[in-house]
Design brief:
Largest sheet: none
Strand content: under 5%
Distance between the termini: 91 Å
Mean pLDDT: 79
Radius of gyration: 28 Å
Order of helices and strands: HHHHHH
Helix content: 40-55%
């Protein structure tokens, strides 16, 4: 006779306190992220204030320049991905010439610019990077001594070269990474009004 109390027949154990707390935190985190999605201006203002606080902290402490340099490089990469189309024409021009392409003329159909990195993910990743950099300033081990003017010069050179290449890419493939100001076409709106009969038309009874 089989043992009814064998370990294989026991009911599955309930998740621990830490697992439930982490799951609850993830749900609340995602909930507030979803609610903040439509507030684009408010989100970016909050991130700008947070970045200003970080720069003020670095200035007062006079350190952690290497962390700031890494933050700048990461933000630059995010910004370039934000300006780049999701389907890069330089990669797909020889593969599929008949596929979807960016509108290059004013009389073409309006197509919203599809980014490689959407605006919300750009904001979220950028804000997380600032928070992580702020956290790094709490550890003296990450305060690597460095001559900060050299880092500033490196970043300016890298930013200039990268943006120059991106602008050339935009000019070559004739696209603008913003949908604002482009012509949009809307269908007829249903106003609920009954159209009046034409002049001379007689309704039959």
């Amino acid at each position: 006779m089989d043992d009814l109390n064998a370990p294989g027949d026991s009911a599955p154990s309930q998740p621990g306190i830490l697992s439930r707390a982490y799951r609850r935190y993830s749900e609340l985190h995602q909930h507030y992220l979803d609610r903040s999605t439509p507030y684009v201006t408010a989100r970016w203002i909050a991130s700008a204030v947070l970045l200003l606080v970080y720069f003020l902290r670095v200035y007062i402490l006079q350190g952690w320049y290497i962390v700031t340099y890494a933050l700048g490089i990461y933000e630059l990469n995010l910004f370039i991905a934000f300006l780049t189309p999701k389907i890069d024409p330089s990669v797909n021009e020889d593969i599929d010439e008949d596929g979807p392409s960016l509108p290059t003329k004013s009389n073409e159909e309006f197509r919203p610019f599809m980014r490689r990195l959407p605006e919300f993910k750009f904001w979220y990743s950028s804000t997380k990077a600032v928070v992580l950099s702020m956290f790094c300033t709490c550890f003296e081990a990450l305060n690597v001594p460095v001559f900060w003017p050299i880092l500033v010069m490196y970043f300016i050179i890298l930013f200039t070269i990268t943006m120059k290449r991106q602008i050339r890419h935009m000019i070559k493939y004739r696209y603008i990474p913003f949908s604002h100001g482009k012509t949009k076409y809307k269908g007829k709106e249903d106003t609920g009004k009954v159209p009046l009969p034409a002049v001379g038309e007689v309704n039959e009874i």
